[in-house]
Amino acid sequence: MLIVQEVEEMKEWAEVVQQMIEWMELHPDRNRILEDLSDEIGYSPWYCSVVFHDVTGMTMKSYASGRRLARAAEEIRDTEERILDIAVKNGYSSQEALTRLFKEQFGCTPAAYRRRPIPIPLLPKKNVLFPDITQTERIKKMEEARLGVHTEFVPAHKYLGIWEERAENYCDFWKYHDCDTVCGYVTSMEKSADPIVTPHTAGWKVADGKRTYFYGTGVPLDYDGPVPEGFELREIPGSYYLVFSYPAFDYMAENVDVMPAVEKLARNFDPAALGFAWNEESCPDYQRHNPEKLGYQVLRPVKKI
User: Measured between alpha carbons, how far is residue 7 from residues 10, 11, 166 in Å?
Assistant: First the structure.
């Protein structure tokens, strides 16, 4: 009974912290974050501060500061809005204050980043609510009939990412790498990314019967920008892919069932039935995971026979 109570308490904390995170995303100009947030959600400043740190591993001040700078960087990259206006909108006292912090954190000025976006370690928005894989009385909502397979051609591109030989899947990968740092670099490349192999398209490299996991973003063939420490830039030839998929779904309710179902279909499929053979010696497998918009897809490269 004590364990059950602890689990329920952790869920409650996660829900409260996610509420705090969503509030901060909507109020980037607030400088009295702790006091204003406390008034908004009805918990004491002390409780908000302690629970936030326990759940995220970060202080609320450092998280809010990092997200404010990340939002400003994304607006600088993606819009033509004046840098002064972006600074004020995100709670900075002046353009000079934003520029000073931007250069200190990222090694370049906001204006330079706008002219030529490069990988920088933005702090991504945190998500602390995840599907409960241990829940035994969960009702399965995914429908097997919605699983599908189709072909897609992925043109030649480069891939900027971390190729982790010690990991076979997403969870293993993050045992060896800091999620915020890696995802921050990847997110910063959204404007310069390949239009098909987009940021956060991860996957597997298959060699000698071994599957190893990678994470990053596709970039155009002519990309010649900097490569962050730990990342590699690899050229990937064009190839047809079989795309195994499940359409948009409720992440919290269905993800536990959807991902294994799609991956099982992909791993057990015989491409000869469609006139193909696997082409994994030349190209990697890709993984697209955007539950509420795209759904979940596993792409395996093939060649015609």
Answer: 5, 6, 31
